[in-house]
Amino acid sequence: MDTVTAIRSRRTIKDFTGAPVARERVERLLELAAWAPTHRLTQPWRFACLDQGGIRRLHDFLKATPEIAAVPDPAKGAAKLAKLGDRLPGLGAMIVVTWVRAADAAVDLEDHAAAAAAVQNLLLAATADGLGTFWSTNPALGHPLTLRFCGVDPAREGFLGAIFLGEAAETPSAPPRVPHSERVRWV
Ligand SMILES: Cc1cc2nc3c(=O)[nH]c(=O)nc-3n(C[C@H](O)[C@H](O)[C@H](O)COP(=O)(O)O)c2cc1C
């Protein structure tokens, strides 16, 4: 698939078939993610990968940890967690993306941007490989206890999102964008 087609056809997929995604396929996406631009070559992105067994264990952990359902508040947290719980069994793999926090605020902002560029590489590479993706910032997945479950030290790394990967059961039509001319200034 050419780059233009990958950019245009990538969609946030909400329904996955439950088919697994092989570890080698995930590793290939991560190798491509790492070609993102990175100022000072800090390469701040970190990826915690869960196969379907890992996703099942994460799901059990989320259900068994009431502090997680309490964010951002008990009512919203429980609803968001329930929605997440419905979605998890359909995934083929999940990648929790973090970036290593920098003490200097300007460097930290650049490192956050570099990690987001790595995520976009990953999403486009997955699209070109025929995989559906969903970038989720569900608070349950960014909770410090969830990050620890994934082997991440939340004092050192920030949560950028969890990337759901799998075979799309349904591909939605593209949510419309405003004409790009409305977002552009030529100087
Ligand atoms: C940083 C980030 C976080 C996102 N988190 C969520 C999320 O938690 N839940 C959700 O439904 N979509 C989430 N999305 C996906 C957007 O809703 C989606 O990109 C948007 O609707 C446009 O659809 P498209 O990706 O198919 O073009 C997130 C996207 C980004 C960039």
CATH hierarchy, class: Alpha Beta
Helix segment count? 8
| Fourth CATH level, the homologous superfamily | NADH Oxidase
Over the alpha carbons, how many angstroms does the gyration radius reach? Answer: 17 Å
How does the helix and strand content classify structurally?
alpha+beta
Looking at CATH, which topology would you report?
Answer: NADH Oxidase
Residue-averaged pLDDT: 97
Task: Describe this structure as you would to a colleague.
- The chain has 187 residues and is α+β, with helices and mostly antiparallel strands.
- It has a single domain, classed as 3-Layer(aba) Sandwich (NADH Oxidase), CATH 3.40.109.
- 44% of the residues lie in helices and 18% in strands.
- It is built from eight helices and six strands.
- It has a four-stranded antiparallel β-sheet with strand order 2-3-5-4. It has a two-stranded antiparallel ribbon with strand order 1-6.
- Helix 1 (3-9) packs across helix 6 and helix 2 (23-33) packs across helix 6 (105-128).
- It is globular.
- The structure holds flavin mononucleotide.
- Residues 11-12, 135-138, 161, 174-175 line the site of flavin mononucleotide.
Which short descriptors sum up this protein?
187 residues, 4-stranded antiparallel beta sheet, 44% helix, NADH Oxidase, alpha+beta, binds flavin mononucleotide
